[in-house]
Amino acid sequence: MNLPFRIDLRNKVIVITGAGGILCSHLAKAVAACGAKVALLDLNKEAAQMQAEEIGSIGGIAKAYQANVLRKDSLEACHEQILKDFGSCDILINGAGGNNPKATTDNEFAEVEDVTKDFKTFFDLEQEGVEFVFNLNFLGTLLPTQVFAKDMVGRKDCSILNISSMNAYTPLTKIPAYSGSKAAVSNFTQWLAVHFSHIGIRVNAIAPGFFSTKQNEKLLWNSDGTPTSRTGKILAATPMGRFGVVDDLVGATLFLLSPQAAGFITGVCIPIDGGFSSYSGV
Ligand code: NAD
Known about the structure:
Elements: E1 13-17, H1 22-33, E2 37-42, H2 45-57, E3 61-66, H3 72-85, E4 91-94, H4 127-148, E5 159-163, H5 176-195, E6 202-208, H6 217-220, H7 229-237, H8 250-257, H9 259-262, E7 269-272
Parallel strand pairs: 1-2, 1-4, 2-3, 4-5, 5-6, 6-7
Helix pairs in contact: 3-4, 4-5
Bound molecules: nicotinamide-adenine-dinucleotide.
């Protein structure tokens, strides 16, 4: 793997949730390339397994585990197994997250005539969908932290990396629950950084800008492969004029995980967004 730079993660156990997914499987490969023993957790065991095998095939140390970030018993069972396989967790990357169509409006702006139209307005959002998204992003960050950060207490050079989003700075249209839940992730990152400051566990986050992935493909691309109008808006609002690629996340991640480089940094969220969060549009 082509790393922007290398940090020494040999003998470090790194637990990554959502590691079968697009962004976090790439982060798993990056930390494995730095020598870490990587536990890839995902609800979808096959997806995590595929990534673990890929890491193994190029000489990395990785193992896949089925875990639900919304179930403490599932996380605790997984923790027990990781202790046996690799030992105590040094670094946790909370990567599992996402949105749900039941918490997404079809329209960007409410209009008076919407009541007569056959689409999903704010008034049609389903409580179940909103709860799902809030739980997945917020509780799905908090519960793995409760389970795996216990290993870090009283040990050196441990840290946590959460995955926030552009939505945490300014909400995006259509996705109120995802926006609110990522704002909660950024807020929780600061809260936890303070809470853990006396016991030496650093807590930071990255906020990826727009990456065209499986999670958001329906919002960005029509079924015939042409860009949706949202795609045009995103690129116009991204001063660097492109979507992010997974390699863009690696440098900030390694930097934040490195106690040598970022040993006095806790509670920050680094936007990796081509300037999106800085641009007013004018
Ligand atoms: P992805 O859908 O490719 O990966 C998410 C993974 O999480 C999937 O493998 C899924 O199986 C797993 N997962 C879902 N529910 C789970 C649960 N209950 N327990 C355990 N695992 C579960 O998404 P991605 O694009 O790689 O996103 C990774 C993270 O980055 C998410 O937190 C997402 O919100 C965030 N993010 C993504 C983007 C983007 O443009 N893709 C931008 C900003 C933030």
